Amino acid sequence: QLQLQESGPGLVKPSETLSLTCTVSGGSVSSRNYYWGWIRQPPGKGLEWIGSFYYSESTHYNASLKSRVTISADTSKNQFTLRLSSVTAADTAVYYCARTGTKLWAVGEGKYYYYYYMDVWGKGTTVTVS
Amino acid sequence: QSALTQPASVSGSPGQSITISCTGTSSDVGYYNYVSWYQQHPGKAPKLLIYDVSNRPSGVSTRFSGSKSGNTASLTISGLQTEDEADYYCSSYTTSSTSVFGTGTKVTVL
């Protein structure tokens, strides 16, 4: 059964870099079938998609965060990491990692099918910038 | 990428049906059938309810259904139950190869 677990410091100082790790169990971040990514939720507010990556081929980020965000994978540890630089109080949020999409090859049809939804989530980790 | 627009709140009595709308643009909801819906109870991670506009993952109640017309997607909860009281979010894939969430709707069971 696929499980994701976020980890990292709960408190980050303004202007520093927030770094979080998502450990994947029951699946592989190097799978060519799945996308993985990060979502956050400020206190009392809605969900915000941060970004996602696929294998080692592509990474996509929320345009509003693009200049500050990096998502990368450590396949040897079956983990992926979020780095958000120059943080401010506005970056205070619960951060979730999730499986964010699926890419399946239909052998009989000779084409890929894509699914872009977040079906497995971590429990979330709270990060406060102060 | 602006958030998709949802009503802030929707309410209904037990047993009733309610519908939550999710309005986007021709670059997201209107372009792809990659609309998904999530339920979030307080202090919990979101749970996938609907994907690809109208498909339910295994284990999700048939009381939840989804549809789409143009730039607006909808989630209908039929036979409203007390445990349906939660926040609901839509999401769509976009032409920028990113995803965007809706503003969220708080469902209250009267």
Query: Which ranges of chain A are low-confidence, i.e. pLDDT below 50, for 5 or more consecutive residues?
Result: none
Report the strand count of chain A: 12
Secondary-structure element sequence of chain A? EEEEEEEEEEEE
Mean model confidence by pLDDT of chain A: 95
Average pLDDT value of chain B? 97
Largest interface: A-B, 25 and 26 residues
Question: Roughly how many Å apart are the termini of chain B?
Answer: 35 Å
Indicate the radius of gyration of chain A in whole angstroms: 15 Å
Low-pLDDT runs of 5+ residues of chain B are none
Discrete helix count of chain B: 0
Main traits of this protein?
heterodimer, A: 130 residues, 12 strands, elongated, B: 110 residues, 9 strands, globular
Structure description:
The complex is a heterodimer of chains A (130) and B (110). Chain A is built from no helices and twelve strands. In chain A, the strands form two sheets. In chain A, strands 2, 4, 5, 6, 9, 10, 11 and 12 form an eight-stranded mixed beta sheet that branches. Chain A has a four-stranded antiparallel beta sheet with strand order 1-3-8-7, with no helix packed on it. The model of chain A has no long low-confidence stretch (mean pLDDT 95). Chain A is mainly beta and 130 residues long. Chain B has strands at 9-12, 18-23, 35-40, 47-50, 64-69, 72-77, 86-93, 99-101, 105-109. Chain B is built from no helices and nine strands. By secondary structure, chain B is mostly beta strands. In chain B, 36% of the residues are buried. The A-B interface holds A 39, 46-49, 51-52, 58, 60-64, 96, 100, 114-119, 121-124 and B 1, 3, 32, 34, 36, 38, 40, 45-48, 51-52, 57, 89, 91, 93, 96-104.
